[in-house]
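Fold this sequence, please.
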Amino acid sequence: MIGAWRALPAQVQDAVLAAATMLLILGVPLLGSDTGGLTPLWGMLVCAVCAPLAVRRLLPMTAALASGAAVLLAVVLQLPQVGAWVTTAAFGSAAYHRDRWRSLPAIAATCWLVAFDLVQGRPPSPSSLVMSVAAGLSPVALGHILRLRHDQARQAVLVERAEERARIARDVHDVVGHHLSAIRLQAVGGRRGTPEDATRALDVIAEISGTALGETRRLLGLLRDDADADADAADLGALIARLSHQGLRVRLDGDIPQEPMPLEVRYAVYRIVQESLTNVMRHAGVAQAAVRVAWSRGTVVVVVEDGGRAVPGEPALPEGRGMRGMRERATLLGGTLAAGPRAPHGWRVTARLPLDEGTVHRDTEGAGR
């Protein structure tokens, strides 16, 4: 029933609400014995009070003022109650749905409440006026509170979507950048070598392309919240074996435990190692690297080292998207990542990630090689 109601267009919902409110106000007095004063004019004014609810989202302030005007007219004509509570509810709805001049519904409701007391001929003593205005403004205050909660929820969704886009961008950079770098290196090497070297390079390029397609499919599986795709992608041993086949000899010390390491930590370790080794292929000018993985006291430590051209003390290079992505991955899991030259020469990346899933948070900070 609730699902069918929510499936209706907003205009239809408001029209049904206006009609139901109208029938309620018209029907309740008819159940009693005293029906004096229930003239056709009274019925028309009841309709005039309730009908504006049909456009309460499209024209929030107009609906509230029109309803309030009909209530005041009924009081001036000394007709029975036509539903003043409908007008106060309409002002509350206006406070929720109005995007600009958020204070206008409160001001208009206050003026209407004062006018309502005046046309009834009651001397507005300060205490009674305060009580009346406070009671009438309660729906307006409720409307403002509900709108604030709605805006906060919407902002949270927008932030979550932005973080998801950033995560997707990191994954795409890692997958595409890694394999394109390997393809480029093979193409350059094949062009400079013998025909046999070129043939072997084409074979490796074909293999790399197939792997890239497979990882892209797994990435799409991750976007569909496919946990199995995530587990398959985090195969660190397969990554190192593939890179060794492509010409980068990688020594692996330690291994990734299947349990109790959280799946998201395994995946982050995989991507950090992949991006670090991609940087070795791009920048280090060497064909060897070492990867060490160790875990203790609820923390997994990943170290990737090479013996490339970087030396301690040299001017720092601008950090790029790859290093920023690795640092963001570590930070999102409550960990840290450090990178820089090591003695006597080469580059070292060290990531420390907590194994406790409860430490995951959404802070981000950025810098990368």
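The beta strands are 249-253, 288-296, 299-306, 336-341, 347-354. Residues 305 and 348 are 4 Å apart (CA to CA).
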